[in-house]
Amino acid sequence: MAKKQRRRVRDTWKEKSWFTIKTPVAFQDKEIGETPAKDADYVIGRTVEVTMRELTGDFSKQYIKLQFEVDNVAGNIANTKFIGHKTTTDYVRSMIRRGTSRIDAPVYVTTKDDRKLKLHVLAVTTRRAKSSQQKFMRETIQDLVTKVASEKTFDELVEVSVNGRLASEIYHKAKKIYPLKRVEIIKSKVLD
Question: Which residues contact 33 (CB under 8 A, 6 or more apart)?
Answer without folding.
Answer: 20, 21, 48, 50
